[in-house]
Amino acid sequence: MTAASDRAVFAPVLAIDIGGTKIAAAEVQGGRLHDRRQTATPRTGRGDDLVAAIAALVPRHAPSAVAVATTGIVRDGALTALNPDTLPIENGYPLADALESALGVSPLVVNDAQAAAWAEFSVGAGRGFRNFAFFTVSTGIGCGLVIDGRLQIGATGLAGHAGHMTSDPGGVICGCGRRGCLETVASGTALARRGSERLGRPVGAPDLFAAANQGDGRAAEVIASAVDALVNGFADLTAAVDIDCFAVGGGVGLAQGFIEALRARSLRLPAVFQRPIIAAQAGADAGLLGVALRYEGNFHLK
Predict the structure, then answer these.
(1) What contacts 94, CB < 8 A, 6 or more positions away?
(2) What beta strand segments (E) does 138-255 contain?
(3) 234 with 272: CB under 8 angstroms?
(4) Rounded Cα gap, residues 187 and 37, in angstroms
(5) In Å, how far are 186, 199, 208, 295 from 202, measured between CA atoms?
(6) Does residue 15 carry a pLDDT above 50?
(7) What is the predicted pLDDT for the residue at 10?
(8) How far apart are CA 276 and CA 238, in angstroms?
(9) How far apart are CA 228 and CA 268, in angstroms?
(10) Does residue 138 sit in helix, strand or coil?
(11) E strand or H helix at 286, and its extent?
């Protein structure tokens, strides 16, 4: 390896994380985030508006390396929203090409949950495990899988989208087009919808947890149904690819008592399906960190 390539390995990576409500950016070097900033995600349905918002976050000095984590399905640098309610955008929008035109650098683009899973596996809760799953339970449900030490992407970028496994065959239609996905039962959006129906008044997920903590049995039942659905989803993945450990993050996932409830419910599974369930450790910016680490790993593989 040349001295020039050595410098490239240790150069800062401009990491970008595209979510349904915000876009975050930071320079990542040595596993640390610097100059983090964010803006609201445009919801016009136009990928070009998304790229313009990203370009506005880029520092004045031209980045030498760009890595992007985004909600949705990424295939060969093109982005499609699995659930358009999360991020409205044209199907197959050429995000990598558009960003290269805007920034002058060819970016790495991966799914945000996959990126966060890589951060957890590399420096967080997944260290020491070969088969690892990271679930973020928030507005939606994201999942990233590391199997035999390798991040799973899939030929079409769909690997790990466990929030769209069927949980309730008779349930509501999901934004992805299927019925009764795990996301329609256990996400923060689902908890708000189901909690509002059960309590007879509009509530958000935090309100539901507060009501349950104050002894409201109806709120507790809604949360328990989400816990049940998630644990059964964990068991399904364990049966499919023999997961060693599950890490859980996100606003709902890290709510007080939620992981403890997941662990308690998992003990009712047959022993062969029981696996450790632990709190994610890489933090809210795991997507930024993970995509930067992934970029560096890809560089080393070249």
Answers:
(1) 47, 77, 78
(2) 141-147, 150-151, 245-249
(3) no
(4) 26
(5) 17, 8, 10, 43
(6) yes
(7) 56
(8) 11
(9) 10
(10) coil
(11) helix 286-301
What was the pLDDT predicted at 297? 78
Residue 229: C-alpha distances to residues 33, 163, 186, 224, 226 (Å) = 35, 10, 7, 9, 5
How far is 170 from 114, CA to CA, in rounded Å?
Answer: 29
CA–CA gap between residue 253 and residue 184 (Å, rounded)? 15
For the record, the structure tokens of 75 come out as: 């295939």
Q: How far apart are CA 159 and CA 104, in angstroms?
A: 29
Closest by CA to 212, choosing from 185, 230, 231, 194, is 194
Instruction: Give the Cα separation of 188 and 196 in Å (integer).
Output: 12
- What pLDDT does 4 receive? 36
Q: What is the pLDDT of residues 151-175, one digit of tens each?
A: 999 999 999 999 999 999 999 999 9
Token pair of 101, please?
A: 């035109």
H-assigned helices in 152-204:
183-186, 188-199
Whole-angstrom Cα distance, residue 220 to residue 214? Answer: 10
- Kindly state the average pLDDT of the residues 96-102: 97
For residues 279 and 125, is the Cβ–Cβ distance under 8 A? Answer: yes
**Mean pLDDT of all residues belonging to the chain:** 93
User: Is the Cβ–Cβ distance between 192 and 205 less than 8 Å?
Assistant: yes
Q: What is the DSSP letter of 271?
A: G
Q: What share of the chain is helix, strand, coil (3-state, %, to 5)?
A: 40, 20, 35
Q: Looking at residue 268, what DSSP letter applies? A: T
**Lookup: tokens for 156:** 């079409």
